[in-house]
Amino acid sequence: MASIIDIAGLTKRYASGFEALKGVDLSIEEGEIFALLGPNGAGKTTMISIVCGIARPTSGTVRVAGHDILRDYRGARSAIGLVPQELSTDQFERVIDTVTFSRGLFGKPRNDAYVEKILRDLSLWDKRHNKILELSGGMKRRVMIAKALSHEPRVLFLDEPTAGVDVELRRDMWKLIGELRQTGVTIILTTHYIEEAEEMADRVGVITRGELLLVEQKTALMKKLGKKTLTIVLADAIAALPPELSEWDVSLHAQGHEIEYVFDAQAERTGVSSLLRRLADLGIGYKDLNTRQSSLEDIFVSLVHQEKAA
């Protein structure tokens, strides 16, 4: 599949010497949902700001739908819809007016049918004559998405789209993003809610301290880096782990009632059978076993910790 965003050697250095981005290379395919994960200050918003033409890079190149963001700003920007983290609308303007005006800003001819479709898809049609200030926080965020889609962009950036909204509205937003992808829109999502990336993304990028640590298919990433945790519920509590268990990655939990063993599920030998045999040899009985696959959050935390330790 062809890429719609190509980033090469992207750096951003401020006058203070702080380097917000350090040689980022990234290609995003047309029609995919790409989740960019990283802690606060990692460089996520800086990268989005550069791609969207809000900030200028120190070096490197960015092309959006074939348009260089510096040499052909208008062409690149017209292909992009941006929903920023902060809500920024004229509070006294009507919903339908702010969406129609946004379309005109990009030189698009008036299209009442298209604006109506956007508002209906976002459950905003009944609120079209309301002023922005009369809407709930979740509805205001929907208006921001409607504004971003008003000029029919091929790429939609969502910077923390569900920050500050309740669980029900967050689920509605996930559904909406899935529907947008079905229309062919490429979606780049930054989020602190890692379950959103796990739920929706095709690929995941992890960025920290201005460096892109990895970009991977979500399923491949979880298969490659995901560990499994075996919880052994003991028949009787033990005060400490016997030294004979030191060759396994085990820990004691639940006031001595549970042993947890972390292992690589892809390994030829997981060590589970030998661990259970050793427990039997030591006279440690158990009454239940259960396993848990590592989540994307577990993987993310592990990667960031590894990078900090490096």
Can you walk me through this structure?
With 310 residues, the protein is an alpha/beta fold. The chain folds into two domains: 3-223, 3-Layer(aba) Sandwich (Rossmann fold), CATH 3.40.50.300; 227-293, Alpha-Beta Plaits, CATH 3.30.70. The chain has ten helices and 14 strands. It has helices spanning 44-51, 73-78, 95-105, 112-121, 137-149, 167-182, 194-200, 218-225, 272-281, 296-309, and strands spanning 3-13, 19-29, 33-37, 59-64, 67-68, 80-83, 155-159, 186-190, 203-208, 211-217, 228-234, 250-253, 258-263, 286-293. The strands form three sheets. It has a six-stranded mixed β-sheet with strand order 6-7-8-3-9-10, with helices on both faces. Strand 7 (155-159), helix 6 (167-182) and strand 8 form a beta-alpha-beta unit. Helix 3 (95-105) packs parallel to helix 5.
The number of helices is 10
Mean pLDDT: 87
Q: How do the helices and strands follow one another from N- to C-terminus?
A: EEEHEEHEHHHEHEHEEHEEEHEH
At the fold tier of CATH, the topology name of the largest domain is Rossmann fold
**How helix-rich are the residues, as a percent range?**
25-40%
Contiguous low-pLDDT stretches (5 residues minimum) are none
- Secondary structural class: alpha/beta
Looking at this structure, what is the CATH superfamily of the largest domain? P-loop containing nucleotide triphosphate hydrolases
General form: elongated
- Percent of residues in β-strands: 25-35%
